[in-house]
Amino acid sequence: MMVFEIGRTGTAPHVIAQKVGSGNIVKGRNEVVADFLRHESDWLVFCDSDMGFAHDAIAGLLLSADPASRPMVGGLCFGLKKGDDTDWELQADHYRMFPTIYRWVELDDEVGFQVVPDYPQDALVESAATGAAFFVVHRSVLEKIREKFGPVWFTPIQHPKRPDPFGEDLSFCIRVAGVDCPIFVNTAIKTSHDKGGIFLTERTWQDQQTLVELRK
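Now predict its structure.
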């Protein structure tokens, strides 16, 4: 995408990297929404530069979305997190995949999102939150958030029951829920997530879960 933008605009690589680097992701995402709302389009598509998807995936998201009943729909995406089984002898960390489909959990002394590993196949699944890597959202949701909370769509939220703020994507989903809009994930819309040469897909997720079962 950077090479394409360099050729299209003639902008120097370091300028593009500065504007879209992950270090400025909150500011960048908020600016994207603010700029979108200056125009008259109904749907905003968010797609991170490390995502892979089929040629008809965006059309599929839009076809499964609805301004009133399904104003935000994400594709099936996967993340990677460090496990608790660090190998100190070999100085190695072990990582596991997870689908970015979450339920909200609130206990007496903590709150947060919990991954839903047993999501339905090829279905529209209502979710408390999803990631910001690949989704569509109707402008009415963004306008409601701006009206209620201000232009802080992706600004991290600090909850009194948590030591650290939520990430920008989950903070956005909290605000979506705060304006009474539902979130869906279409698990029929597959993606890949490039984590430095490791590609997270539904197939690699299923392979991981099979290995976990075999080790029990």
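The mean pLDDT is 92.
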